[in-house]
Amino acid sequence: MRILVTGCAGFIGYHLTLKLIENGHNVMGIDNLNDYYDVRLKLDRLKELGIDSDNALHQNKTVASDSFKGFKFVRMSIEDRENLPQLFDHNHFDVVCNLAAQAGVRYSLENPEAYVDSNIVGFLNILECCKNHNIEHLVYASSSSVYGMNKKIPFNTTDSVDHPISLYAASKKSNELMAHTYSHLYGIRTTGLRFFTVYGPWGRPDMAMFLFTEAILNHKPIKVFNHGKLERDFTYIDDIVQGITQIVENKHTAAYNSDNLYHLYNIGNSKSVKLLDFIEAIEDEIGLKASKEMMPMQPGDVEKTWADVSGLERDYNYRPNTPIKSGVKKFVAWYKTYYGNSNE
């Protein structure tokens, strides 16, 4: 298939792009390479995909991969109302995977405009392009953050999500509503995925896995919010990518061929892990104890997440199978290789 992956230099976008290329698809990747976190990490992900850093930085220039004949990259923002439609004009995409977004719950308190620009305006632009170019299937990233203060565990997509507690969560809930509208009005097949705390090699520096590993290796204290009384459905990147590719590639399921064009799924590990146990797994792998600074609850944060993934299991045979210890081991090994850190 001909697939557009937005946010392809991001954590999940990079891994998904690589998997789709390896599976034989022709992939066009776009990313605006913003400086929300170190751009060098994004450029190094693109290097793994065969895109030279100097070429990647040119705005709106199509660059062919040196390593994979099925991959091309363009530096572009999804909110670009002039160039994004032209990209759709010149490429006849079958599927669009929209992973481009301004991420991070806490940053939405500091820079709310970035979330409206990328997550609302940008997503509308994607929907309009899908409508105007008869895209077969739009798969897009939502978030477990939409569940807000929901106390019912595990979280199910039938639960009410009318009380978001961060602008990031509100923007993702908006995406789901916008997708529903376009599915209803224009017959666009849309599948939204509520991601649950994704971690793994090439991860984002603002995520707990990265922050804890960096601090422990460098003998610095880690901040443990809500005094450690947090639980997360930590999901290894390979399990996430497996789920997305099954949705993209499998057109023979009852869900795909049903009259209902709008679908929404949780995608997670379907287990909740205590934050202190997660930290202990990192300590065990590194061989050092963390110095913990116990902190109060952060604004916009929630105490517990846990995904009910039965819908994705039923419709696409989704089976996450990476235990925390195994995932932590792989991340720490990557981190030490990439940054040259060791605890010797």
TrEMBL record:
It comes from the Bacteria. SUPFAM superfamilies: NAD(P)-binding Rossmann-fold domains (SSF51735). Signal peptide: none annotated. InterPro entries: Epimerase_deHydtase, NAD(P)-bd_dom_sf. Residues 3-256 form the NAD-dependent epimerase/dehydratase domain. The keyword Phosphoprotein does not apply. Keywords: NAD. Pfam families: Epimerase (PF01370). The keyword Oxidoreductase does not apply. This is NAD-dependent epimerase/dehydratase family protein.
